[in-house]
Amino acid sequence: MARPRAKELTERELEVMHVFWDETQAESGIELTVSDVRDSLQKSGRELAYTTVATLVRILVEKDFLKQTNEERPFLYRAVRSFDEVSGNLLGDMIQKVFGGSREKLLLRLMDERKLTRKELKALEDILREKS
C-alpha cells in the first residue's frame, strides 16, 4: 500500500502529533524524545513498541510535521505544524472530498447526527454571533 501524501496523516501518526500538541499547550515549543512520546501514549492506554514510535516519529519528520532539534542522542523533536493548521487542513480536505466543498452540507449532517446539548448549542450561538 502506498504511503499517503505528506499532508495526510495516518491514525497512528495523528496520535503521535497529539502528544506534541497536548504537551505544547502547557509549554510552548516543548521538545520530546521518542521515549517521552511512547510514555505519554502508554499513559493514555496506547501500548506501542519503542521501534514503532521511533518509526512514526521518523515518518513525521520526513513529512515535515516534526523537526529534530539536536544532533546527539537522545534525539529531541518538536512539532513544526500546529494543531490549528493541521486540523484546518484535514477538515478542509474532508469538506471538499465528502461534501463537495459545502460547509452547509457538513453543518446539516452534524445537526442530523444527534441533538445538540445545551452547552453545544450555546457554544454554536456564541460562535455565530462572533462570526457575523
Automatic annotation (TrEMBL):
Keywords: DNA-binding, Transcription, Transcription regulation
GO MF entries: DNA binding
Pfam families: Penicillinase_R (PF03965)
Gene3D superfamilies: Penicillinase repressor domain, Winged helix-like DNA-binding domain superfamily/Winged helix DNA-binding domain
InterPro entries with a match to the protein in the record: BlaI_family (IPR005650), WH-like_DNA-bd_sf (IPR036388), WH_DNA-bd_sf (IPR036390)
Signal sequence, start to end: none
UniProt keyword annotation of Magnesium present: no
Superkingdom per UniProt: Bacteria
An individual GO BP term: negative regulation of DNA-templated transcription
Family listed: Belongs to the BlaI transcriptional regulatory family.
Name under which the protein is recorded: Penicillinase repressor
Species this protein is from: Gimesia alba
Name of the gene this protein is made from: blaI_6
